[in-house]
UniProtKB/TrEMBL annotation:
Pfam family, one: GidB
Name used for this protein in its record: Ribosomal RNA small subunit methyltransferase G
Catalytic activity of the protein: guanosine(527) in 16S rRNA + S-adenosyl-L-methionine = N(7)-methylguanosine(527) in 16S rRNA + S-adenosyl-L-homocysteine
Family per similarity comment: Belongs to the methyltransferase superfamily. RNA methyltransferase RsmG family.
PANTHER family noted in UniProt: S-ADENOSYL-L-METHIONINE-DEPENDENT METHYLTRANSFERASES SUPERFAMILY PROTEIN (PTHR31760)
Major localization listed first in the record, in broad terms: cytoplasm
First-level EC class: transferase
Function: Specifically methylates the N7 position of guanine in position 527 of 16S rRNA.
HAMAP family reported for this sequence: 16SrRNA_methyltr_G (MF_00074)
Length: 211
C-alpha cells in the first residue's frame, strides 16, 4: 500500500531512510486508518491522501528542526511528531494533546511502531509545566500564531524556537504577534502531491531588552 508513492516523495524531500523507517511510516498510516474508524482522528480517510497530506506535510519541516528536544503541541493524531520521530530516531520527541482519546492513540502508536524516542503527555498546553524546557516547540494545529505564542511560549528555552506550520502566507497573523517573540523566518514549503500553499513560521524569544 503506497510504498511507491512514499518512496518517490521521500526522495523529492531529500530523505534517505532505511527500509524499516519506510515500513514504520506505512504502518503508521495503517494505524491511523484503523483507529479512524472508531475515533475520528483525521478527516482524511484515503491512505494515499494521508501519505501526501499527513506524512509528506509533516516531514517537509525536517530541515528546519535544528538541534535538541522537540515538543509537538496539539499533536492530535501525532502530526507532525510521529512521522518526524520515525525519520529522526536519534531525536527526542514529546507529543502533547489535551484529548484523552487522542493521547491513547499516540501511546498505542508509539508502542506498536517501537518509537522509544517518543513520550506522550495528556494536558492542556497552557497548564503544562515540564521540569525541562524544549529546544523546539512545533505545532500544526493552532488556529492563530498569537495564541500559539501566548499558550506555548513558556515551553520554549530562551535559546530555542517555535515552529508553526501554516497554509497561505499568514501576513495578518504575523502583524498580531506579541512582542515576547520575534520572527526569524517564514519559508514556503514544497510538499510532494499537495497542490496547496504551505509555509513554516520560525519564531524565537525576543532578544530586545532580554525579558
Amino acid at each position: 500500500m503506497g510504498t511507491d508513492i512514499l518512496e518517490k516523495g521521500l526522495l523529492i524531500l531529500g530523505f534517505k531512510l532505511e527500509q524499516r523507517q519506510v515500513g514504520g511510516l506505512l504502518a503508521y498510516v495503517r494505524l491511523l486508518e484503523k483507529w479512524n474508524q472508531r475515533y475520528n482522528l483525521t478527516a482524511i480517510r484515503n491512505p494515499a491522501e494521508m501519505i501526501s497530506k499527513h506524512l509528506f506535510d509533516s516531514l517537509s519541516i525536517g530541515p528546519s528542526l535544528g538541534e535538541g528536544r522537540i515538543l509537538d503541541v496539539g499533536s492530535g493524531a501525532g502530526l507532525p511528531g510521529i512521522p518526524l520521530a520515525i525519520a529522526y530516531p536519534e531525536r527526542e520527541f514529546a507529543l502533547l494533546d489535551k484529548s484523552a482519546k487522542k493521547t491513547r492513540f499516540l501511546i498505542q502508536a508509539s508502542i506498536e511502531l517501537g518509537l522509544s524516542n517518543v513520550s506522550v503527555v495528556c494536558e492542556r498546553v497552557e497548564a503544562y509545566h515540564p521540569p525541562d524546557l524544549f529546544d523546539v516547540v512545533v505545532t500544526r494545529a493552532f488556529a492563530k500564531l498569537a495564541d500559539f505564542v501566548v499558550q506555548a511560549g513558556h515551553l520554549c528555552k530562551p535559546s530555542g524556537y517555535l515552529l508553526a506550520m501554516k497554509g497561505a502566507f499568514p501576513e495578518e497573523e504575523l502583524k498580531a504577534l506579541p512582542a515576547t517573540f520575534e520572527i526569524v523566518d517564514v519559508c514556503a514549503l514544497s510538499v510532494p502531491g499537495l497542490n496547496a500553499q504551505r509555509h513554516l513560521v520560525k519564531l524565537r524569544p525576543s532578544r530586545a531588552g532580554d525579558h
